[in-house]
Design a protein that fits this description.
Length: 172
């Protein structure tokens, strides 16, 4: 679900930003600087956080940050889009780190490779479907629709984590 939500919008972020938000094409690359700096600076602290507080809180926090980043991006300007890209980076780090740790907690070592491979396989299928669906919604209805659908998927993800994910007895 996370991969689907991300792929609905990420494939057309540049088009949306330049055509709908009016960010000059020559400045679009600037939005990736905060994203990359955030990923570099926050990777290790977020990994430690996942080991310290468990998996559920970072999953919920990451999905909530995705939602906030989406709302900021959809009506932004150059500065707010830069902020949203940084938030996307934080959300991705939180969700992916917590999901990988949760997977490690739940799957026996001898099956982890198969499970990760299958998860990647399914994730890439949803990535492709999300790109196609996002493009279709963008072109056929209105440009903000893929972003709003991604927001709905983030909210559904939060509810799933709250009600269905349970912490492992050994967090480390």
């Amino acid at each position: 679900m996370v991969m689907l939500g991300m792929s609905l919008t990420h494939v057309m972020n540049a088009i949306y930003a330049t055509e709908t938000l009016g960010i000059p094409k020559e400045q679009w690359w600037l939005t990736f600087i905060p994203l990359l700096l955030t990923m570099v600076g926050a990777s290790i602290p977020i990994g430690k956080m996942v080991d310290t507080v468990g998996r559920k809180i970072p999953l919920i926090l990451g999905l909530a940050i995705f939602g906030a980043a989406t709302l900021i991006f959809v009506s932004g300007n150059l500065v707010t889009v830069m902020i949203s890209m940084s938030l996307f980076a934080l959300g991705q780090l939180l969700v992916m780190s917590a999901a990988m740790a949760l997977s490690t907690d739940l799957v026996n070592p001898e099956n982890r490779g198969k499970v990760v491979g299958f998860r990647n396989f399914v994730g890439y299928i949803f990535n492709g479907l999300g790109m196609l669906l996002g493009n279709y919604l963008y072109v056929s209805f209105f440009p903000q629709l893929p972003f709003y659908l991604a927001l709905v998927l983030s909210i559904l993800g939060i509810l799933i984590v709250i009600f269905l994910v349970q912490e492992s007895q050994n967090k480390t």
